[in-house]
Design goal:
The protein is of the alpha+beta class. Helices cover 35% and strands 19% of the residues. The N and C termini lie far apart (54 Å). Strands 4-1-3-2-5 form a 5-stranded antiparallel β-sheet, sandwiched between helices.
């Protein structure tokens, strides 16, 4: 039996959904999953600065982000009509060029359809360093920014 292999994940939102009112759970993976490319003070600072720069330009609004050694998880909204794919590609390209991060192609996104789903994903993101055995308590992980909690 022939199997269908998708070469690229679709990131389009149906036209009947107002994507400017939606939040997305995002995962970006480094190409080498066993090497720490993201959980350093220098890289974390660059990630935060580029997020804030792009927020000022109106590209997106991050609600939560956690950098793990080899991947990022976050919850983000896009004020413009579905700018997700273009924003993620440009952001990854900038971080790769300036900070030598080697990313996997593409990214994973999941549209959060309810408050319950958003709370579940936020808890998953916050506890990721604990599950990975990097810290005992989520509050001990330095590479997390929760805008809802800090602003």
């Amino acid at each position: 039996m022939k199997r269908f292999i998708r070469s690229r994940l679709p990131h389009e939102v149906p036209n009947w959904i107002d994507a400017t009112q939606e939040a997305f759970f995002i995962t970006l993976n480094c190409k080498v999953r066993s090497r720490n490319q993201l959980a350093t003070q220098e890289i974390w600072q660059a990630i935060l600065e580029t997020i804030e720069f792009r927020e000022q330009r109106g590209e997106w609004k991050w609600l939560l982000i956690v950098a793990m050694p080899d991947h990022l998880h976050g919850i983000v909204t896009f004020p413009q009509r579905f700018f997700l794919e273009k924003s993620m590609a440009a952001w990854k390209r900038w971080l790769a060029t300036r900070h030598s991060i080697v990313w996997q192609d593409g990214f994973f996104d999941h549209r959060l359809r309810s408050l319950e789903s958003a709370v579940e994903k936020a808890n998953y993101i916050r506890l990721n360093p604990v599950r990975a055995g990097l810290v005992e308590h989520a509050s001990d992980w330095p590479y997390v920014r929760d805008w809802k909690m800090s602003n």
